[in-house]
C-alpha cells in the first residue's frame, strides 16, 4: 500500500471557508505614511476619517488599509501620489506627552498593480510564490478585515468583543476574540477563522478599578486613603491607562495616565490662572461646584501640572491588559478551553459578526466567501507500537485513544540517581513530603531507574525569598550528603505562581548547571501512582535515560539511512516590550530511534524571525548525533514552527541556506468531540505545492 493512502479515510469539518469568488481586476497597491507616527489603532481611526472626508479626491473609491503602511483599491486613484491633512475632532483621542497634535499628514504613493492571475497560477501549482502573490494575499487579508477593524478592538488579524466577557480577577476580564486569515490552498483561496481570547481592563469608574486592584469590596473601603505601598502598586497597574473625565458631561476629554501624585487631592497644589496656588479639592469645589467624596486619595497626573481627582475619571473600554499576573495564564486557559462543538458554534457566531455577504468592501473588490465550514478528506493513521524494556511484563503497547500508562512497563534505559536533594517552597508538612518522596522512589525503581540515595536531604526555603541562594543551598546539601556532584534538585512548589518556576529554571540552567524537577504541593498529598510515573519519566530523560521508542517498522525512513530529526522555533517578547529579547531554539534527535533529543539555544535581539546562528546550532546537534550513535546522518528532516506567511519565503531561503552550508461519518471524533489521535490532513487545505510537504494534525 502507498504510504500516502495508509490509514482509515474519513471526512472532517474544518474552520476554513472557501473564497468562492476571487477578485478579477488588478488590485492597486499604495504605500501610505501618517505623520506624526502613532499606534496602528489610531492610524486606522485617522485613515477612516480621511477616507470619509475625501471621497471626491479619491474618485469615489473606498480604499482599505492595514493599519500600518499598505493601502489597496479596486481601481486606480485619480493621482499617483498626493498628501492630505487630517484633523481629528478635539478630545476624540488621549493626548500624550509625546503627541500633542490632533492634526496629521497622510502621504499616499502608488507602489504597484497586483495581477491576480499570478496568484491563480500559484494556487494551481503552475507558478511559484512570487512577491506579487504575497502582496495579493496581503491585500485579501486587508479586504476581509478592514470593515470589522473599525468596529472592534483589533490586533493584527484578530478582533475582540466584550460580549460574553468574564471577570477574571481584580480589574481584569477575559474577552472573546476571533482570528481570520486568507490562506492559499490547493486550487483555491480559503479564509481560516478561529476562536481566541485575551485579557482586557474592565471599563467604568477608575475608583472602582482601584478598589478591585487592592482587593477591596467597594470604593468605600478607600476612605482611609492609600499607603505608600498601595499607591505604588496601583500606579504600576494603571500607568498608561486611557481614561476620560466625567465632571463636564458636555465636553468629556480623553487622557493617558502618567502617574499618581504622592499627595492626596486636598494637599496637591498647582498654580491657578491668576498666579495664586490652590489645591485640587478646593479648585473642583469652586470651579465645578463638585465636593469630592475622596479628597484623601491621590490625583491622576495626565500631563505636566495637570491633575484629576480619581473619582472624576472613567476607564475607556477596549484596552488590552499586557501584564503577566501570576494567575492570568491559568484563568485565560480555563476561559478559552472549549470542546470542538462549542468552538464550532462560536466560529459560526463569528460569521454573523463578520457578515461577509453584506460587506461593502468585499463587494467592491468582487470577492465572495462561503459561510459553510469546508469538509475535507483526511486519514486516521495506524496506531504506532511503542517499545519498552524487554524485561517488562508488557514490553510493547499500542495506545488506545492516544493514551497509555506505565503499568507493567519499564523504561528502555533507566538512569542512575545518586546525588540529589528536595527543595520545599510550600508549607507542606515534613510527613507529607517524606511520604511523597518514598512513593516517587518506589515508582522510579519499578519503572527501571536506579535510585541509590533513598533519603535525599530536604531543604525548606521561602517562595518569595532569594531563589538563587535557595537552589545553591540545596545543591550543596545534595553534594555533601552523597559526596558526589549533584544530579537533580526536586522542587516542591506552592500551587500558584509562575514566577518562582521561571526563576528556578533560569538559575538551575544558567547559573548552577543542574537538572531540576518541579512538582506542585497539591500532588504531594496522597500521591497517585500515575502522577509519580509521569514525574519519573521526566526525571529519567533529564538524567540521560531513555523511556521508550517506536518500533523500526513505523519509522522505516529513519532506520533505512541515518537520519536526524530537527525542530526549530523562535519566541518573541510581548508587543510593546522593548527590553526582552527573542530566543531561538533548535532540538535534534540523537540516534536512529529518534527517542532522545538534544537542544541548542541562542539569544536574538528584537523580534527577528530568522534564526541568525542556525548554521552553528545545526553543527552542534550533528556532532552530538555522531558522538551518540557513531554514524553521520545522511538525511535531515527539519520542522520549523512559528513562521507567518509573509516571512515564509525569506525564512526558507535564509535558513535552508544555513543548513546546507553547515558541515556537514462526516467527522470521526473521540468522546470529547476531537478528531481521533493520528488524524492527518495532507490534502484540500494544504499548501498548493506538494514540495512544501504541508500538513495539519
UniProtKB/TrEMBL annotation:
Residues that span the membrane, as ranges: none
SMART domains: DUF1785 (SM01163), PAZ (SM00949), Piwi (SM00950)
Domain PAZ: 205-317
InterPro entries: ArgoL1, ArgoL2, Argonaute_Mid_dom, Argonaute_N, PAZ_dom, PAZ_dom_sf, Piwi, RNaseH-like_sf
Highest taxon of the lineage: Eukaryota
SUPFAM superfamilies cross-referenced by the UniProt entry: PAZ domain, Ribonuclease H-like
PROSITE patterns, sorted: PAZ (PS50821), PIWI (PS50822)
MF-aspect GO terms: RNA binding
Coiled coil stretches, renumbered: none
Ranges for domain Piwi: 488-661
Family: Belongs to the argonaute family.
Protein's UniProt name: Piwi-domain-containing protein
Provenance organism: Rhizophagus irregularis (strain DAOM 197198w)
Amino acid at each position: 500500500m502507498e504510504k500516502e493512502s495508509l490509514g482509515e479515510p474519513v471526512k472532517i469539518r474544518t474552520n476554513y471557508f472557501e473564497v468562492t469568488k476571487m477578485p478579477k481586476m488588478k488590485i492597486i497597491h499604495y504605500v501610505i505614511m501618517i505623520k506624526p507616527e502613532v499606534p496602528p489603532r489610531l492610524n486606522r481611526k485617522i485613515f477612516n476619517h480621511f477616507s470619509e472626508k475625501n471621497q471626491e479626491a479619491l474618485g469615489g473609491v473606498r480604499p482599505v488599509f492595514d493599519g500600518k503602511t499598505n493601502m489597496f483599491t479596486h481601481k486606480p486613484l485619480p493621482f499617483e501620489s498626493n498628501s492630505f491633512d487630517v484633523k481629528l475632532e478635539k478630545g476624540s483621542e488621549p493626548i500624550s506627552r509625546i503627541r500633542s497634535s490632533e492634526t496629521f499628514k497622510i502621504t499616499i504613493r502608488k507602489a504597484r498593480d497586483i495581477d491576480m492571475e499570478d496568484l491563480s497560477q500559484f494556487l494551481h501549482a503552475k507558478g511559484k510564490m512570487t512577491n506579487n502573490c504575497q502582496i495579493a494575499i496581503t491585500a485579501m487579508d486587508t479586504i476581509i478585515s478592514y470593515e470589522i477593524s473599525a468596529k472592534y478592538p483589533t490586533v493584527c488579524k484578530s478582533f475582540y468583543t466584550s460580549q460574553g466577557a468574564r471577570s477574571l480577577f481584580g480589574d481584569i476580564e477575559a474577552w472573546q476574540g476571533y482570528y481570520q486569515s486568507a490562506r492559499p490552498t490547493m486550487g483555491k483561496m480559503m479564509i481560516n477563522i478561529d476562536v481566541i481570547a485575551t485579557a482586557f481592563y474592565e471599563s467604568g469608574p477608575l475608583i472602582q478599578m482601584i478598589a478591585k486592584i487592592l482587593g477591596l469590596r467597594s470604593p468605600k473601603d478607600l476612605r482611609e486613603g492609600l499607603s505608600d505601598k498601595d499607591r505604588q502598586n496601583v500606579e504600576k497597574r494603571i500607568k498608561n491607562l486611557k481614561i476620560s473625565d466625567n465632571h463636564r458631561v458636555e465636553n468629556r476629554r480623553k487622557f493617558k495616565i502618567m502617574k499618581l501624585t504622592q499627595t492626596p487631592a486636598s494637599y496637591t497644589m498647582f498654580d491657578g490662572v491668576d498666579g495664586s496656588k490652590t489645591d485640587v479639592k478646593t479648585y473642583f469645589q469652586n470651579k465645578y461646584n463638585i465636593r469630592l467624596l475622596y479628597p484623601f486619595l491621590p490625583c491622576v497626573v495626565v500631563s505636566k501640572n495637570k491633575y484629576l481627582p480619581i473619582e472624576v475619571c472613567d476607564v475607556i473600554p477596549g484596552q488590552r491588559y499586557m501584564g503577566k499576573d501570576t494567575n492570568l495564564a491559568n484563568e485565560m486557559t480555563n476561559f478559552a478551553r472549549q470542546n470542538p462543538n462549542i468552538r464550532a458554534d462560536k466560529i459560526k457566531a463569528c460569521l454573523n459578526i463578520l457578515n461577509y455577504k453584506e460587506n461593502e468592501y468585499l463587494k467592491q473588490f468582487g470577492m465572495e466567501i462561503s459561510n459553510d465550514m469546508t469538509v475535507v478528506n483526511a486519514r486516521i493513521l495506524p496506531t504506532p507500537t511503542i517499545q519498552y524494556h524487554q524485561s517488562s511484563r508488557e514490553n510493547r503497547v499500542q495506545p488506545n485513544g492516544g493514551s497509555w500508562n506505565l503499568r507493567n512497563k519499564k523504561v528502555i534505559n533507566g538512569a542512575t540517581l545518586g546525588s540529589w536533594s528536595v527543595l520545599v517552597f510550600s508549607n507542606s508538612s515534613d510527613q507529607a513530603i517524606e511520604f511523597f518522596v518514598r512513593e516517587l522512589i518506589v515508582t522510579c525503581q519499578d519503572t527501571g531507574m536506579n535510585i541509590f540515595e533513598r533519603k535525599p536531604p530536604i531543604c525548606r526555603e521561602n517562595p518569595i525569598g532569594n531563589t538563587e541562594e535557595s537552589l545553591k543551598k540545596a545543591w550543596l546539601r545534595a553534594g555533601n550528603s552523597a559526596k558526589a556532584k549533584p544530579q537533580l534538585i526536586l522542587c516542591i512548589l506552592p500551587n500558584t505562581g509562575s514566577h518562582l518556576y521561571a526563576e528556578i529554571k533560569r538559575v538551575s540552567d544558567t547559573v548552577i548547571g543542574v537538572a531540576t524537577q518541579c512538582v506542585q504541593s497539591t500532588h504531594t498529598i496522597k500521591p497517585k501512582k500515575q502522577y509519580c510515573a509521569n514525574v519519573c519519566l521526566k526525571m529519567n530523560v533529564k538524567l540521560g535515560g531513555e523511556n521508550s521508542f517506536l518500533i523500526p517498522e513505523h519509522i522505516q525512513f529513519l532506520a533505512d539511512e541515518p537520519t536526524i530529526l530537527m525542530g526549530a522555533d523562535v519566541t518573541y517578547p510581548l508587543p510593546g516590550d522593548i527590553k526582552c529579547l527573542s530566543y531561538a531554539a533548535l532540538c535534534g534527535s540523537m540516534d536512529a530511534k529518534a527517542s532522545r533529543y538534544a537542544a541548542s539555544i541562542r539569544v536574538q535581539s528584537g523580534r527577528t524571525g530568522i534564526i541568525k546562528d542556525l548554521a552553528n546550532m545545526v553543527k552542534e546537534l550533528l556532532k552530538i548525533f555522531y558522538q551518540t550513535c557513531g554514524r553521520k546522518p545522511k538525511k535531515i528532516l527539519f520542522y520549523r514552527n512559528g513562521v507567518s506567511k509573509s516571512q515564509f519565503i525569506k525564512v526558507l531561503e535564509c535558513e535552508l541556506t544555513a543548513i546546507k552550508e553547515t558541515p556537514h461519518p462526516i467527522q470521526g471524533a473521540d468522546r470529547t468531540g476531537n478528531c481521533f489521535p493520528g488524524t492527518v490532513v495532507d490534502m484540500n487545505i494544504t499548501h498548493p505545492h506538494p514540495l512544501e510537504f504541508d500538513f495539519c494534525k
